[in-house]
């Protein structure tokens, strides 16, 4: 099982985003979400924790998290996650 965490997702292409920051461009985030959806079973953190505690880990599961509540998380990332 994996946990993939993000900091912020912003509008614009990758070339327009400061690559040294912790921001990720929307198009790059969308590409990563497509990959995760195709290759893994996306689960909630609650399910991740339950599986971990009951020794039911599965290398095909991934949980996606954000470490801050930047506007881009709600405005840019959330619609792609829905």
Brief rundown of the structure:
The protein is of the alpha/beta class. It has helices at 26-39, 45-53, 71-81; strands at 2-6, 8-10, 23-25, 41-42, 61-66.
Give the helix/strand layout.
Blueprint: E1 2-6, E2 8-10, E3 23-25, H1 26-39, E4 41-42, H2 45-53, E5 61-66, H3 71-81
Parallel strand pairs: 1-5, 2-3, 4-5
Name a few traits of the molecule:
82 residues, 3 helices, 5 strands, alpha/beta, elongated, two-stranded parallel ribbon, single chain
Describe the fold and architecture.
This protein has 82 residues and is of the alpha/beta class. It has helices spanning 26-39, 45-53, 71-81, and strands at 2-6, 8-10, 23-25, 41-42, 61-66. The strands form two sheets. A three-stranded parallel sheet has the order 1-5-4, with helices on one face. The longest helix is centred in the middle third of the chain and has 14 residues, at 26-39. The two termini are 21 Å apart. The mean pLDDT is 89.
**Secondary-structure element series:** EEEHEHEH
Give the averaged pLDDT, no decimals: 89
Query: How many H/I helices?
Result: 3
Taken as a percent bin, the fraction of beta residues is 15-25%
Sum up the overall morphology in one term: elongated
